[in-house]
TrEMBL record:
Signal peptide: none annotated. Keywords: Membrane, Transmembrane, Transmembrane helix. This is Major facilitator superfamily (MFS) profile domain-containing protein. Its main location: membrane.
Length: 367
C-alpha cells in the first residue's frame, strides 16, 4: 500500500513491540500500588487495542499506522499484564509449567497468524482483513476476561476511607537474586531479537529459498511452542541456574555454529529449530526466576515482572540500531562460512556473545 514509506512502516512495527514492553514497565508499579485497578486496566486495554486493529483498516497514509498499530495497539499490555502475574497466585509446585503453557500462546500465534492474515489479504483485501482481525481479537479476549480472577482477595474498603495499599518489601532491591536476574534478562534481551529481525534478509543474502527467510522465522515460532512447554516443565525439576545457563548456552552455540556457518537452507533450518527451542523459549524461565526473587510475597511479582519487561523493551528498541551498525562493519571479511561471505559476521558474534554472557550470569543465580 505504501511502497515508498518502508521506514515509516518499520517504525510502526518497532513501536508496536517495544511499547508493549515499556507499557508493562509503567503499568507494573501502578498495579502494584493499586491492585484493584487490574480489571479496569484490562477492559481499557482491550477496548483501545481492539480499536487500533479496526481503525488501522481505514488508514490512507503510512504515518497513520504509527498512531494506530504503533501507539494505540500497545495498550494490549494492560490486558496482558494481570494475566501473567496472577499466575503466581494460582500455581506453586508446577508454576514453571504453567508459565510455559501461558507463554506458548505467543509461539502458536506467531506460527499460525501470519498464514491466516496472508490468506485473508489475498481473498478479501486489507480493509476487510483488519476489521475481521480486530473483531475476532476483541471477541476472543473479552470472552477470556470472564475467566480471569484473583485467588488472594484484596483488602476490603472500609466506609469512605481509601482502600489500603499493599505494603511493598523494598528489601528485595538488596538481594543478589534480583540483580542477577536483571543481568540475565538484560544480556539475553540484547541479542534475542536479532534472528527474527534479520533472518529474512540473511536468507536472501545467502540464497536460501527452500525454505525462505519468512518461513524460517515461522519455524522458530513453531519450535518455541514445545520449547516453552519443555522449558517450563524442566524448570520445575532442575535448579534454576542450570535451566537458565543451559538454555542460553545452547542458544549461543546455535548462533555461532549453524547460523554463523550456514550458507544454505539445511543449517538455517537447524538453527531455527534450536533457537526456537531455547532462546525464544526463555520466557518460560521468567516465572521460576521471579518466584525465587519474590519468595511468595504476593505484592512483588507484578513489580519484578514489569522490571523484566522494561529490560526486554530495551533489547527490542536497541536491537535494530545496534545490529544495523554492526552490519556496516567488515571486520570478519574472508572468514569461514557466513561470517566472511556476508556482512553479518559482526552481528552474528554480537548475538552469540550477549546470549552466552547471559548463560554465565545465570550460573551465578542463587539456589
Amino acid at each position: 500500500m505504501f511502497p515508498e514509506d518502508e521506514g515509516t512502516l518499520t517504525l510502526a512495527a518497532t513501536l508496536q513491540t517495544g511499547l508493549i514492553y515499556m507499557s508493562i514497565a509503567v503499568l507494573g508499579p501502578i498495579l502494584t500500588a493499586f491492585p484493584h485497578l487490574g480489571r479496569t486496566s484490562q477492559i481499557i486495554g482491550l477496548i483501545v487495542s481492539t480499536a487500533a486493529f479496526i481503525s488501522s483498516a481505514f488508514v490512507t497514509a503510512a504515518p497513520q499506522l504509527i498512531g494506530t498499530m504503533g501507539i494505540m495497539y500497545p495498550f494490549a499490555a494492560a490486558l496482558y499484564l494481570p494475566c501473567a502475574t496472577l499466575l503466581f497466585e494460582w500455581f506453586h509446585k508446577r508454576r514453571g509449567m504453567a508459565g510455559g503453557i501461558l507463554y506458548s500462546g505467543t509461539g502458536i500465534g506467531g506460527t499460525v497468524t501470519p498464514f491466516i492474515i496472508d490468506a485473508l489479504l489475498k481473498r478479501v483485501g486489507y480493509k476487510a482483513t483488519m476489521v475481521s482481525a480486530g473483531i475476532f481479537y476483541g471477541a476472543v479476549n473479552a470472552a477470556a476476561l470472564l475467566f480471569i480472577r484473583r485467588r488472594i482477595p484484596l483488602a476490603p474498603r472500609v466506609g469512605s476511607a481509601p482502600r489500603p495499599r499493599p505494603r511493598i518489601d523494598w528489601a528485595v532491591a538488596r538481594t543478589w537474586a534480583l540483580w542477577s536476574g536483571v543481568l540475565v534478562l538484560f544480556l539475553s534481551s540484547l541479542g534475542n531479537f536479532n534472528p527474527t529481525l534479520w533472518m529474512p534478509t540473511f536468507a536472501d543474502t545467502v540464497g536460501a529459498t527452500k525454505p525462505g527467510g519468512v518461513a524460517l522465522v515461522s519455524i522458530m515460532n513453531a519450535a518455541s511452542v514445545p520449547g516453552l512447554l519443555a522449558t517450563g516443565w524442566l524448570s520445575d525439576r532442575l535448579p534454576i541456574k542450570l535451566a537458565v545457563s543451559t538454555n542460553c548456552l545452547v542458544g549461543a552455540l546455535a548462533a555461532l555454529l549453524p547460523w554463523g556457518l550456514g550458507t544454505s537452507s539445511a543449517p538455517l533450518i537447524v538453527f531455527s529449530v534450536v533457537w526456537g527451542l531455547t532462546a525464544l523459549s526463555f520466557a518460560a524461565l521468567w516465572t521460576p526466576i521471579i518466584s525465587r526473587i519474590c519468595q511468595d510475597d504476593p505484592t512483588l511479582p507484578t513489580l519484578v515482572f514489569s522490571t523484566f519487561a522494561f529490560l526486554r523493551g530495551v533489547g527490542n528498541f536497541t536491537s535494530g540500531p545496534v545490529s544495523t551498525q554492526l552490519l556496516k562493519t567488515g571486520r570478519f571479511h574472508g572468514a569461514v562460512g557466513a561470517y566472511g561471505s556476508t556482512n553479518f559476521g559482526a552481528m552474528l558474534v554480537y548475538t552469540a556473545v550477549t546470549v552466552f554472557s547471559a548463560a554465565v550470569a545465570g550460573a551465578f543465580f542463587p539456589a
